[in-house]
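Give me the 3D structure for Sestrin-1.
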Amino acid sequence: MWNYTNLQSLDLNRNCVLESPLETESLKETCVYKKCVKKAPDPQTGLHRNLNHNDNEKIVPVSTSEDQTQMLFVDAFLQNNRLDHVTQLMGYHPNYLEMFLRTQQYLLRGDGPLPFHYRHYIAIMAASRHQCAYLIHLHEQEFILQGGDQDWLKGPAFIPTKLRKLHEVNKILAHRPWLFNKSHIEGLRKEAWSVSELVQAIVIMAHFHALSSFVFGCGIKNEPDHHGGFTYRPHSPTENSNDSDYTSDSSSDSNSEPEVGIEILMERMKKLKESQEEEPTEEERRKRFEKVEFQSAELTKPGKKPSPKAEIIKYVQDEEFCYIDFTKRGCTEEAPTFRANEYSWDDHGFSIANRLYSEIGNLLDEKFSMAYNLTYYTMGEVIDVDTSAFRRAIWYYIHCLYGIMHDDYDYGQVNQLLERNLKQYIKTVTCYPERLTKKDYDNVMKEFKHSEKVHVNLMLLEARLQGELLYALRGVMQYMT
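Predicted structure for Sestrin-1 (481 residues):
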């Protein structure tokens, strides 16, 4: 019978520093020959604080008393040979975690046309666009364990041409998905990519772009067996902490405003719910969307992009390519506002995903629905709160950052419920996650519980993922028709 002691013991064995019995530094041999040469930290003190935040902000411990969460931890360990920090942090929301693990397991180890080592290499490519060393290290190890050629980890010059041709699509989907169109599909088809392979690759890239946002948004530190994972170093205000995937404490917005409290936010939500105001016309909705769009472009750009280390930059091509505000995209005819009433996940994206990559549409749909509707009816210390308006405002604001307009949503609610500081945080996590600072995290949602901040970051992850997939799957559909 499995219990947390079994899991904890195995997790520590998996996360110890490893040495090959052949005394080689080969990553492949390090992964294959597992011999503990360093004592693991005390599980009661070493595994509960793996965030770059305050001591009271912790991942869910292996010894959790919640049966559902503990069983999910066991499942995750059996699937991945480790219990990683992402899983433990998502453990605050076990219903979501169950769907996340099921989807990621299917992407990386389930049915699909791509070889397993290709899938992990594509994950590395995706994480490198945001300099997410945490995910890069995880999937370098998995790539080797799945039989991948270690030379590929030297950079794009060493990988097959077929994979190398994904770099253009990878950077566009990561930073400016509105540029993606059927011509990218046509180009890749000439490089021996089948449409079903492309759809799987696109979903994997989008998944890890969005997961990079979650890693940075929550300040997740490296695993114990990764570089710096066992090392404690006081944080320097001038140091760029690439080792722990979290930038320095310098503020990204010198014009930050005081945050209103939960009570005021609740009053605003109540007024919106009780409002007898007439439904805005289609023209008024469009104007309110454009207002939010332009206000977003006026937010101060996050601090300087951290200089990537060699272990990250080796995977990146066209390093300077990054997000630009949709309103500043240039030719509006080539990339008009994406109207969700013309192409939506429910009516279009879901079916084409399922058609070309069996079951992934169902898995994604359940996960989107869970993230969109998840609520505990609490806000800080207050209970019995209807948070739906606040959650909708976050979801649709993220889509707005990518130029996606939902015709049935009143974007006036975004400005009523999301303050400037929170908008700045959402935009940074979604569009420039590698530039996020600890101060950004600390300056928003101050009265929220830590688990509620994690909840918000789950919505950011899923809304970004859905937005990226809407553009990508529309391009696939255009190619096929």
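Residues 92-228+243-481 form one domain. Let me know if you want a second pass.
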